[in-house]
From TrEMBL:
Lineage: Bacteria, Bacillati, Actinomycetota, Actinomycetes, Kitasatosporales
Annotated protein name in UniProt: GDP-mannose pyrophosphorylase
Domain Nucleotidyl transferase: 4-236
Domain Mannose-1-phosphate guanyltransferase C-terminal: 253-333
Superkingdom field: Bacteria
Cited CDD domains: NTP_transferase
Record-linked InterPro entries: GMPPB_C, Mannose-1P_guanyltransferase, NTP_transferase_dom, Nucleotide-diphossugar_trans
Family: Belongs to the transferase hexapeptide repeat family.
Amino acid sequence: MTEAILLVGGKGTRLRPMTINTPKPMVPAAGVPFLTHQLARARAAGVEHVVLATSYLAEVFEPYFGDGSSLGLHLEYVTEVDPLGTGGAIRNVAAKLRSGPDEPVLIFNGDILTGLDIRALVDTHQTSGADVSLHLTRVEDPRAFGLVPTDATGRVTAFLEKPQTPEEIVTDQINAGAYVFRRSVIDTIPAGRPVSVERETFPGLLADGAHLQGMVDSTYWLDLGTPQAFVRGSADLVLGRAPSPAVPGRRGEKLVLDGARVAADAKLTGGTVVGAGAVVGEGARIEGSTVLAGAVVEAGAVVTDSLVGERARIGARTVLDGAVIGDGAQVGADNELRHGLRVWCDARLPDASVRFSSDQ
């Protein structure tokens, strides 16, 4: 296995304001852009050539990763002028692929943190003779997902939209967002128009009698599409619950990057990350949170399960719990922001001005 496509073109709307200035795959998780973890895991599984399917803020990727040689990879970039959906994005990069018609091509979504055994998925694909193989995972409540039932051999039998009644929940298996395609199958996806691989390509292949194989791997899986999930994923990487060879330091309760300054009596726990050049003041307590580069958390502040953007400032004694603070925002002293409240980039909140929470 030497080749992969990474779908990194989404706008990351649910992650705003963190994605106003930064595409979702480039938002730092455990000290490096999330995409770094995906690329490093692909390389560890034997992948050598990766094509990045970009769209939103596409100009950010290549200056950071270059040709990929620092990761032991050869990277190429293809940008969509207009969004093409997951299937359309795959078809749009086909000209950059080097694989022969019957060779496997790995495909990853750029917002999934997973412990998937990549080699095992490729082996399943090759030994089963499938046209497409899908990573499936099991979830306790599948109502928010499309279901993918399989037969006793693991062959996919249907793709079912989000179930609405208990009778419709025929399996707890869902599409986990990683695939292996036979190279020739990619060329059958219509070119030049939006295509959903989940809603159009896969059901169409199944209806045409193609062999779609499922492999269940539930070691670790998390969709990082929301701020709460993103913060949790970053913490899990630091704590060692989610695997990655790209974490820039030892696993543990905290990860403090070079150039950060943390007061001696400040307490960092739960997989907290403090970015380069950030400052954490005296008596501050930060749990399970991400504080990005250049941010300041002043004395006595309490930050829990929150994301603090680059160059943002959190005032003394302010409480954040499940909050998102955009790049460059300033939250004055003695505020309290809880339960999903978001402060936009460069916004200013005066001292003691906010004592409410949002469930939005």
